Amino acid sequence: MEEKFTEEGIPGGCVGAIDGCHIVLFACPGTHDYVDYFNRKERYSYNIQAVVDINKVIRHLHVGHPGCSHDMRVFSESQVGEDPASLLDPHQYIIADSGYKPLYHIVPVFKKEPGQTTVRGDEVRLNCSNSSLIS
Predict the structure, then answer these.
(1) What is the pTM of this model?
(2) What's the number of domains the chain is made of?
(3) What mean pLDDT do residues 115-134 have?
(4) Residues whose CB falls within 8 Å of the CB of residue 20, separated by 6 or more in sequence, listed in order
């Protein structure tokens, strides 16, 4: 898998992409913590997280968090967040969107820092490569 990511312009060692997704619920959950399922888009949902390979095949799935959960919280409580060595070799990493913090095994896209007016050309190219692979 690493070679295919490299061919797409992603530096060596990348084996997947990670992101969260809201699964919208038809109605308000009938639980005492129903408010936790209300997400930022004003809908009731579950937040799930998937790691996909270059062919967009799901390689790891973590489910069960209410819609109010941020992607980074879901990640930190998933197997890939708690025990990355169980899924990744030491030199491997996963690309992510800017909702994830940079970690040894997670490489998020670049975003502008406060006061920064542009993102460097090499950062834009990497972001574009990530975007086309994740979409």
Answers:
(1) 0.76
(2) 1
(3) 50
(4) 47, 48, 49, 71, 74, 75, 99
